[in-house]
């Protein structure tokens, strides 16, 4: 049985963590982004499918391309963030299953021959992988600003013109500036959303 992590770790990943709208000008080195992926990749996905695809938008040119796809309220903060990650789904994730999940020899065919099942699996599991990325980033000392205010079709046309990948959501990454935070919203209570049966 693993031991519970420290209260400091829980605070950093969940309890005191916030969604950030503003970031300092401190850059996020590529080595940190590589470390981020190497940590978050261990989060579980169904049949080890790993459909997440991640584009770390850092350069001014790439940021301008992304900016054209954002809703007005997300433009300024995304341009100012050191990095914006496009969390996307690989619509052909099943091609990796013979190596990634050999326990079921026909796993690839299960998805390849059922587009509805494949799309639902890609969407669900890339969403989970995006959540793992947020937690991993917080554990590495980064702050996050996840967003859904953008034109998915425009992002896909700009960054995935071959059609294989489909954007899911975005995350601004960097070292947060608390002055841009809204007052923290309440969370639903245990009694409101849970049952133990």
UniProtKB/TrEMBL annotation:
Its EC number is 1.-.-.-. GO terms for molecular function: 3-hydroxypropionate dehydrogenase (NADP+) activity. Its cofactor is FMN. Pfam families: Nitroreductase (PF00881). It comes from the Bacteria. Residues 22-175 form the Nitroreductase domain. Keywords: Flavoprotein, FMN, NAD, NADP, Oxidoreductase. InterPro entries: Nitroreductase (IPR029479), Nitroreductase-like (IPR000415), Nitroreductase_HadB/RutE (IPR050461), RutE-like (IPR023936). PANTHER family: MALONIC SEMIALDEHYDE REDUCTASE RUTE-RELATED (PTHR43543). Belongs to the nitroreductase family. HadB/RutE subfamily. This is Putative NADH dehydrogenase/NAD(P)H nitroreductase RI845_10765.
